[in-house]
Amino acid sequence: MAAMPGQGNSVSAGEMKNTTPAASNRSSSSGSRRGSSPRNEDQQETCDATIHKPDSTSPLPPRPRPVNYDKDHNEKVNTIASLTGAGVLTHTAPSYEEQRASPALLSRGAGGTPGGRSARDDGYCSASSTPRALDHKPTKGSVVTLSCYKKEPKVQIEEEYFYTEGSKRLRANSKPETSDGRETWGTGADFLLSIIGFAVDLANVWRFPYLCYRNGGGAFLIPYTLMLVFGAVPLFYMELILGQYNRQGPITLWKICPLFKGVGFCAVMVAFYVSFYYNVIIGWAFYFLMSSARSELPWVHCDNSWNTEQCWDSARLNGTNRTDVKYQGPLSHFTPASEFFHRAVLEMQHSEGLNDLGLPKWQLAACLGLVYVTLYLSLFKGVKSSGKVVWMTATMPYVVLSILLARGLLLPGATRGIAYYLQPELTRLKDTQVWVDAAVQIFYSVGAGFGVHLSYASYNTFHNNCYRDCLVTTLVNCFTSFFSGFVIFTYLGFMSYKQGVPISSVATEGPGLVFQVYPEAVATLPGASLWAMLFFFMLIMLGLDSGMGGLECVITGLLDQARASGAHWLRREHFTLLVVCVSFCIACINVTPGGIYMFHLLDTYAAGISLLCSALFEAVAVSWFYGLKRFSDDVEEMLGFRPGIYWRICWKFVSPIFIIGVVVFGLLYQQPLQYQQYTYPQWAVVLGWGLACSSILMIPIVAIYKLATTPGTFRQRLACCISPESEHEAIRGGAPVSRFTWRHWLYV
């Protein structure tokens, strides 16, 4: 075989057979082919050779059969020999039993060559696969398939051609996906709709329009776009790459840099904390949806049992109201909608504050339970089930928003509201708060740092175009924020016109907008119940997507870590039920009479500084410790192209500085913790910071634990903790550590 000729020459079966014991062990199949087909014992054995070449050549000359041919072919011999410039490699092809067990092994693609497994085969397990050496320089060689049975031994030779670097990347992109037992999305659209659904949430409806109005209208889009391009999108793209390449959850992913494994625990804890109060908002929306299913909305007038003497009905004359104070808007008075939300739904009148929570209201608890049942049914089968749910939850909000906008544009005062929404005030760009609001809004809107996008991407196929998904999701997210602003401000303009008050008296953000101002706006429309039901149905759809994403991060992260620790018996259905039940029990605190105070506390501290720290250390760990060169190599292997200089600079410098600036500004300019007229006691502030620090402290605690438990000298420990686990054995063997060189740290 060492003297085998190159291209254009032929090889017979007799020459390829090696009768030495070593060769036999190396090239024989794992099983025999006894009784594979009917045969005539007296039939003469033949050996046919076929040459597959692009041009015509002379047929193989007949060669004498070796003396021990019959003896040597009592068992099946099925090997592949690859001729390269470095020599000849042999590969064991699938046995007959393997082919029987997997019919796919018998299929042959166009121009395919039967193949087996080898160190050069990249995990192929197909009878039509060809061993490849994509990590070598362009070479020319032949692939020789020797498929010998006692009935009809054959030799097949197929030529390979020269391959350029571009064609190598193309071949790499077309290689079959290796199966690691991890489920994948049913289609690429399932994944795309899932990350769009998580990124487009309630904040797009109740926060962005108000910020745009408050911070200079159309001028606010300038800092918003800059923060989007240089801050949030690079981090979003990084998370998709990490999850898709490593196919691991947010905790086990950090085998690429064990020192920062605490970042994964931090992200999972933040996502779990957010589920305690975020799903409550969906429960409120369910309650409002059911309350809207009546001929007259319950927040139209002040004649209900829950209304107070201060209730102001703007539809009546001043003489018929119970208060003589001039009406100044829904945010300055106890309007019917405001009292319905605070007194009929939340029952705040039965609580004195955070130290007097009371018992959960059973109606709200039932609505909250309905939310968690929906989440469980969407998640317990993994992405196969949630990927189908998002087809409705991610698309229906756009249908409802379009209907509401078409109706709102017909209302008097609608154009006035849109003018206030978009009127640019360029002088506001001098205000630092405008830039901070833009940074915070786009960062939380995209959702980087939660670990949700990372978890979703881990179920992708290896060569999925996550670069395209990143850009599409970002554009859809920004469009939704901008589009929802038109919807909201058409109704705010109508409300301002009808009540004779300025826009500033009706414009607000958060739950106050969607549960007080907007319900009051639609209450005066013909067919108010229909418009109210459409609006709250849209809120439910927006919330469910994000609720599923947060719990998916928790389930994927903890389940992957448990199985990596040896708990392979743990089933996803049971673990999902456990996570959902724990989250529901804690969330019930927020449906008590004093639950709104706990809700506001969680909303302030659960995903504030801790989320920013999670994203910051993730960016630093990947771009500095794991290394931009290694990360760029991963992208090229996965997508076929390397990230450009824009992405590399943003990952290494711009995005971390962007996050640090937001964190510093947030720490220096803290607002006192209060809800309406209630000021939180000092112990509540301490509780909130303790909640935030509980997730942040996971980063240094796990880092110290890794340094303390890693075997070896201190230098070896440090090298192993900042290097991927695949390099640990070489490091302990004395190999050079690339992360101890300036070249690693200075690469951009």
Automatic annotation (TrEMBL):
Membrane topology qualifier: Multi-pass membrane protein
Alphabetical GO CC annotations of the entry are:
plasma membrane
Task: Specify residue ranges for compositional bias: Low complexity.
Answer: 21-38
InterPro entries given in the database record = Na/ntran_symport (IPR000175), SNS_sf (IPR037272)
Biological process GO terms, please? amino acid transport; sodium ion transmembrane transport
Q: Which residues bind Na(+)?
A: 197, 199-200, 204, 445, 477, 542, 545-546
One term of GO molecular function:
metal ion binding
Composition-biased stretches (Polar residues): 7-20
What are the protein's UniProt keywords?
A: Disulfide bond, Membrane, Metal-binding, Sodium, Symport, Transmembrane, Transmembrane helix, Transport
Bilayer-crossing regions: 221-242, 263-289, 362-379, 399-422, 442-459, 471-494, 530-555, 575-599, 605-628, 649-669, 689-708
Protein's cellular compartments: Membrane
Q: Which SUPFAM superfamilies match?
A: SNF-like
Keyword Transmembrane applies: yes
In residue numbers, the region (Disordered) covers 1-72, 96-138
Q: Which cysteine residues pair off into disulfide bonds?
A: 302-311
Q: Which family does it belong to?
A: Belongs to the sodium:neurotransmitter symporter (SNF) (TC 2.A.22) family.
Q: What is this protein called?
A: Transporter
